[in-house]
Amino acid sequence: MDDRDMRAALDRHWAASDASDFEEEHAIYRDDAVLEYPQSGERIRGRHNIQSSRAAQPNRKHFEVRRIIGAGDIWITEYVLTYDGRPSYTVSIMEFRDGKVAWETQYFSAPFEPGASRAQWVERMP
Questions:
Q1: Does residue 57 have a pLDDT over 90?
Q2: For residue 38, is pLDDT > 80?
Q3: Which CATH number fits domain 3-111: 3.10.50.30, 3.10.450.50, 3.20.20.140, 3.40.50.410?
Q4: Which residues contact 40 (CB under 8 A, 6 or more apart)?
Q5: Degrees, nearest 5: CA angle 79-9-60
Q6: Are 94 and 101 in contact (CB under 8 A)?
Q7: What global pTM score does this model have?
Q8: Across the strands, what pairs with 82?
Q9: Residue ranges of the domains in the chain?
Q10: Which of 67, 72, 74, 85 sits between 20 and 30 A of 11, alpha carbons compared?
Q11: What is the mean pLDDT of the chain?
Q12: Residues 13, 32: Cα–Cα separation, whole Å
């Protein structure tokens, strides 16, 4: 799978994530994939378990992809994941093997107010 194919697979994955299409969202994962959430100390093993854990999430969610970068077997997506109207700035690091995600690590951060000490050098992002 070349980089264009990988990018297209990621585009399908994130669009399916936003649409709550759990079958298409998880088609990108290997059967033995591992997903880690370091901030909560959770590790989920296996595509079926990853999909089941996400399908059980009761919150309304929205994914806004800001940027996807990568090449070969390592791809990073920056996105805003909004649960019930609360944004979380998120980074997903995906490691591919044989064209499917073998390992994913996701980091989440809540928004915060900018520091006054750096205001003179800052422009506000949308």
A1: no
A2: yes
A3: 3.10.450.50
A4: none
A5: 45
A6: yes
A7: 0.91
A8: 62, 87
A9: 3-111
A10: 85
A11: 94
A12: 18
